[in-house]
Design goal:
The protein has 618 residues and is an alpha/beta fold.
């Protein structure tokens, strides 16, 4: 077992659970928990609400509108909108918060396609009207809502853009990737928080490399003006960072990428700004400035204002403010319209309240229905589910955690991973897309976690390319980019510069190139169902060996993974396979092992070398 600590996946309270625990502070809590998560036209929607049992709350009301206006109401009387009273349920212990809570339910009627439902919730004591609790006033991540939190959901039948399922995404950290041939080469400023000199024209000049690798979508780290090398603290939402190049450079990159069959995702930070943003500087300088309402100031904050995880240089925006929402939606639209970007990767989705993302999504989709919204939701499955209908897709970090534990650290078994994926598939909302990855800029690189062991990386990539969802490859993974050190919590070490030329590990490149080509060729790997395959093994080691099948109509692929240090003898139990695999033998088979890639006899029984994968295709 590797001794490296995978800090990104350390035990912590996920955002949605944090919000549930705030019932202790708020008295009434909802946290946008609905059933169904993503309502279709005509479906009733159940709201799940919790109150603190020790409080004398005996009434809870919901005030909702269906015309886009803000609902207004209190004590069961609506000044704008319609009132629905919640039904009181059972009282249950909530050990995580150390309190007893009362569960409530309310039903909102089904709506026609395209309806935006906005609502608020409050609770009170019918015996003492002075005791009043608007729901979710305090929130661990975003600005307080003194008059009660806004909630919203949209009624539709929308799916992620069709091209998303066919995508293989390559994440580029712009400052660390490449400079153009007539620009200074990437340079080490002496520390990893400095500027290395990557540019937009540098990416453009390397599109041939990316096409040859097999990716067809590029996710660029934030290119907006920012004082930092990483760009996740924008000082402008509309201006690009001059160090990366000009607007013309960005337009040329996107146009050239499109001509080569590559789409472009831009990273967009809606949760916070840098302290250099003019709005924050105006708000800090003048308490009467209109921008003051964009942020949350007060002595309760360690910096005098609410900041992203307390980092002073990243003040949090009040995304419940109508003017902030309007500004952010207009900025996002501008990058899509003026530069023809294909979508947005949305940073720190768990920060703003859910209603913000509902409204943001409609602001994007109303003008750019084929643009992708891909959210960074860092919690578990319970967190991911709550964004169904609010975003096209989310990044599946629970799958990342297990892929790293099984293949990099090898402290969990392959069977554990396959069982987790089975549960995951069943629990995910049907119309919610997901992206799956081995690593990114916020965590140790996979190869570092795997102690530089290439076969572990190759096994993980083989598994990743068999999964449902859209794979993401972090820049340089394919050629052995790792990191010089790995102190816990220091994500900067995962952002080493890209390797080029003789510095690349050419021995690694063959494997991802083959896998990406295979995924593009096999429709079932991009659009098919997924399930486990039952295999018979000779020997005692079974937990580190397993198989998956992907199938669609008459096409199927079976992959058998041997994540063990010794060879195993296997036999596929064909009677348990899908119908498309039972009547005909596979047409081809490929063995991917630490020594290389080669075609083998397509026989569903044989010996599988250590740390190897065999693919069968029908």
């Amino acid at each position: 077992m590797a001794s490296i600590y995978d800090y990104f996946f350390s035990d912590y309270v996920p955002p949605q659970e944090q919000r549930h625990r705030y019932v202790v502070h708020n008295g009434v809590e909802h946290a946008s928990e609905t059933d169904p998560r993503d309502p279709e036209p005509g479906e009733e929607v159940e709201l799940r609400i919790t109150s603190l049992a020790r409080l004398p709350i005996d009434r809870i009301a919901i005030y909702y509108t269906t015309d886009g206006q803000d609902p207004i109401g209190a004590f069961g009387m609506a000044a704008n909108g319609t009132v629905v009273m919640a039904t009181k349920g059972e009282e249950v212990d909530y050990p995580a918060a150390g309190v007893a809570t009362t569960h409530w339910r309310a039903l909102l009627p089904g709506q026609v396609d395209g309806t935006l439902v906005c609502y608020r919730i409050d609770g009170w004591s019918s015996k003492d009207p002075r005791q009043h609790w608007p729901a979710d006033v305090s929130d661990h991540y975003t600005s307080p809502a003194v008059e009660g939190r806004d909630y919203a959901y949209h009624v539709d039948q929308r799916n992620a853009p069709p091209w998303f399922d066919d995508a293989i995404i390559y994440q580029i950290f712009v400052d660390r990737f490449a400079a153009a041939s007539d620009q200074p080469m990437l340079r080490d400023p002496g520390h990893l928080t400095g500027f290395f000199g990557g540019t937009l024209r540098g990416i453009t000049e390397h599109l041939d490399y990316l096409v040859d690798l097999g990716v067809n979508c590029l996710w660029l780290s934030p290119i907006m003006a920012s004082p930092s090398y990483h760009g996740y603290d924008p000082s402008s939402f509309t201006q690009g960072a001059e160090r990366y190049g000009t607007n013309a450079d960005l337009r040329a990159l996107i146009a050239t990428a499109h001509a080569r069959g590559l789409r472009i995702l831009l990273d967009f930070v809606a949760n916070h700004t840098s302290t250099e943003h003019p709005a924050f500087q105006s708000a800090q300088r003048d308490p009467r400035a209109p921008e003051r309402a964009w942020y949350s100031f007060g002595p309760q904050y360690s910096n005098g204002y609410l900041a992203y995880y307390g980092v002073p240089s990243m003040p949090v925006l009040d995304t419940a403010s109508a003017s902030v929402r309007t500004m952010l939606i207009a900025a996002a639209r501008a990058w899509l319209e003026d530069f023809c970007a294909d979508g947005l990767r949305l940073d720190n989705v768990s920060g703003p309240a859910h209603a913000f993302w509902t409204i943001f999504q409609e602001g994007i989709k109303s003008e750019f229905p084929d643009a992708l919204t891909l959210g960074e939701v860092t919690g578990g499955l319970a967190d991911m589910q709550t964004y169904a209908g609010r975003l096209d897709a989310v990044m599946d970090f629970p799958a990342t955690k297990w892929l790293r534990r099984v293949f990099a650290q090898r402290d969990s078994t392959l069977r554990d991973l396959l069982d987790m994926l089975t549960v995951h598939e069943q629990a995910m909302p049907a119309r919610m897309g997901r992206a799956r990855l081995l690593d990114n800029h916020d965590m140790h690189r996979f190869l570092w976690l795997a102690e530089g062991d290439a076969p572990r990386l190759q096994m993980a990539l083989s598994c990743l390319m068999m999964l449902t969802g859209t794979p993401i490859l972090y820049y340089g993974t394919e050629v052995g980019v790792s990191q010089r050190d790995g102190p816990p919590g220091k994500d900067v070490y995962a952002r080493e510069p890209m390797r080029w030329g003789k510095d690349q590990r050419a021995d690694l490149l063959e494997h991802p190139r083959w896998l990406l080509k295979w995924r593009h060729e096999r429709v079932e790997l991009r659009h098919g169902h997924m399930g486990q395959v039952e295999i018979h093994l000779d020997g005692s080691e079974t937990r580190q060996v397993g198989a998956l099948v992907r199938w669609r109509e008459n096409a199927a692929t079976v992959a058998i993974f041997n994540n063990h240090d010794t060879a195993v003898t296997y036999r596929v139990l064909t009677a348990r396979l899908q119908a498309c695999c039972q009547n005909e033998p596979p047409s081809q088979a490929w063995l991917l092992s630490p020594t290389g890639i080669g075609a083998i006899a397509p026989e569903l029984a044989g010996e599988l070398p250590a740390m190897s994968t065999v693919f069968f295709a029908w």
